Amino acid sequence: MRSGHGFYSEGELILDAKWLIDPKQLFVGPKIGEGAHAKVYEGKYRNQNVAIKVVQRGETPEEISKREARFAREVTMLSRVQHKNLVKFIGACKEPVMVIVTELLLGGTLRKYLLNMRPRSLDMRVAIGFALDISRAMECLHAHGIIHRDLKPENLILTADHKTVKLADFGLAREESLTEMMTAETGTYRWMAPELYSTVTLRHGEKKHYNHKVDAYSFAIVLWELIHNKLPFEGMSNLQAAYAAAFKNVRPSAEDVPVDLALIITSCWKEDPSARPDFSQIIQMLLHYLSTISPPEPVIPPRIFASENSVLPPESPGTSSLMTARDDSGETPNIQIEDKARGFFFCFKQCY
């Protein structure tokens, strides 16, 4: 219900009324993704192309409660932060089904993009550009006291032109508190910080304190992957990789990485979380490294270009200014919404 303060509160979900989705104006197209507890569709909302995430409610009371809490947490986080490298939140509703609506990005996941390139690797400038996009998104989250906890290529989405990376999926995101201990619920094992994985050895219900530095570790693994375009801890299962990282201090090899870049990676995945840099420092280190491989263009004397049509250099070395015009992985398919859009909840009954 909407309160006198313009908020919608139901269960654990407290959402400003401006973010409420009107189901009657929500239409669904083809399914474009699926996870363990949710399906994602391409759709339309008020004539805007959108991505529609439908969260499955579960069957047992415990399962329902857990998924509703995760849904509420994700919606709350998405509605609180806006950044050019975070997937734009459009709205949500909890009844009759749990739905999260965001901007539609047609570039696919970073995981798919890298797989399509193999055995080739990204141009180093492009890899660093993507890393900067990710770092800036994480810097924004941490500035708002939010830990993502599930940073991995599957949760990084590219724009249609493959020039910008945006962070998505806040299902495991948590607010950071110096006094509150957090549960051992964690992200995907292969990219997981050792202090997160070690919590599974605790008795059920126990809690262990960790902080935002878990995201720095995950970033190091993602950066290693961007550079090599190989699966980290190759030859190991997800659990084996996490066990080796947590209890044997094993890391992917950084021996063939340029020294300055290797320093960034190895500092981010240090065993001691307090020794890892924060994302403001990571951004500065990445920019410094970028300047060594991509020196600025020589300044052309003003007298040569007196025309108003002079092209000014980009304000910052962001990803969009680093990508080449050529699409190395082929053209992005132009997914079309069905000509006759159907009501979302009508389609929902067919899909489930």
TrEMBL record:
**What keywords does the record list, in alphabetical order?**
ATP-binding, Kinase, Nucleotide-binding, Serine/threonine-protein kinase, Transferase
Q: What is this protein called?
A: Pkinase_Tyr domain-containing protein
Quick check: keyword Cytoplasm in the entry? no
Q: Which residues bind ATP?
A: 53
* InterPro entries xref list: Kinase-like_dom_sf, Prot_kinase_dom, Protein_kinase_ATP_BS, Ser-Thr/Tyr_kinase_cat_dom, Ser/Thr_kinase_AS, Ser_Thr_protein_kinase
Q: Where is the Protein kinase domain?
A: 26-290
The similarity comment for this entry is: Belongs to the protein kinase superfamily.
Q: Which Pfam families match?
A: PK_Tyr_Ser-Thr
What does it catalyze? Answer: L-seryl-[protein] + ATP = O-phospho-L-seryl-[protein] + ADP + H(+); L-threonyl-[protein] + ATP = O-phospho-L-threonyl-[protein] + ADP + H(+)
Q: Name one GO molecular function term.
A: ATP binding
Give Gene Ontology CC terms.
cytoplasm
Swiss-Prot/TrEMBL GO biological process terms = signal transduction
Q: Which Gene3D superfamilies match?
A: Phosphorylase Kinase, domain 1, Transferase(Phosphotransferase) domain 1
